[in-house]
Write a structure and sequence with these properties.
This protein is α/β, with parallel strands linked by helices. The protein has a single domain, classed as Glycogen Phosphorylase B (Rossmann fold), CATH 3.40.50. About 40% of the residues lie in helices and about 10% in strands. The chain has 8 helices and 6 strands, in the order αβαββαβαβαβααα. Strands 3-2-1-4-5-6 form a 6-stranded parallel beta sheet, sandwiched between helices. Strand 1, helix 2 and strand 2 form a beta-alpha-beta unit. The chain starts with about 25 loop residues before the first helix and ends with a helix.
């Protein structure tokens, strides 16, 4: 469920393997919708996903890094942290337990993410470069691949400070080469109907077995 171009050594997989890419569909009926406050200010999405969201210090550092900045920040903190525990919220922040991620990504300039595969593919599908702060090995593999392909930056957890968060996001946002590579990957993802490709592959295999 990812493109061959993103997979490690994707060119080594033969015809037995089908790269369908992600199947990204509208989720507004159960996640709600979202629109930016201003069309003039850049949007930064911050989320560590749903599997490991108990790192309250990260969110406090994000408040320090981007509070009262030029960014309009949408930050999802998950179910393990009470947003009220983060203290005073700067006016340019919108903090929720969960956000309609696809809606926010449609408007985001950068995604500060844990680099789970779903989030990584959704970010690239919407043409959004990433600053990846992985929390587990699978996410680290994705983060390293994002950096290797020039689609954003990998920021290891042990290097996270308010200063490094801000510097990494600002650098990615300003990098035209990163933006160009992300657009190319976006075109790759959008050129394939993942659900149809996957269904055709399954039906083809079943027919071959008959």
């Amino acid at each position: 469920f990812l493109p061959r171009e993103f997979h490690y050594e994707g060119e080594t997989f033969d015809e037995r393997f089908v790269f369908a890419g992600p199947s990204i569909k509208d989720r507004s009926t159960f996640q709600g919708s979202w629109e930016p406050k201003s069309a003039e200010r850049p949007v930064l999405l911050i989320s560590l996903g749903t599997a490991a969201t108990g790192w309250s210090e990260f969110f406090s550092l994000a408040l320090q890094a981007f509070g009262d900045s030029e960014w309009d920040v949408v930050m999802a903190v998950g179910d393990h942290i009470d947003p009220a525990e983060l203290g005073e919220v700067p006016a340019n922040f919108e903090i929720r337990r969960h956000v309609p991620q696809l809606d926010v990504l449609r408007h985001a300039k950068v995604f500060l993410t844990h680099a789970g595969m779903n989030s990584t593919m959704e970010s690239l599908y919407h043409g959004v470069p990433m600053v990846a702060v992985p929390q587990m090995n699978e996410q680290r593999a994705n983060a390293l691949r994002v950096e290797e392909l020039g689609l954003g930056r990998h920021l290891p957890r042990e290097e996270v400070t308010a200063e490094s968060l801000r510097a990494s996001v600002d650098a990615v946002a300003a990098d035209e080469a990163v933006a160009a590579r992300v657009r190319t990957m976006q075109e790759t993802l959008r050129s394939v109907d993942g659900a149809t490709v996957a269904a055709d592959a399954v039906e083809g295999r079943l027919a071959a077995d008959d």
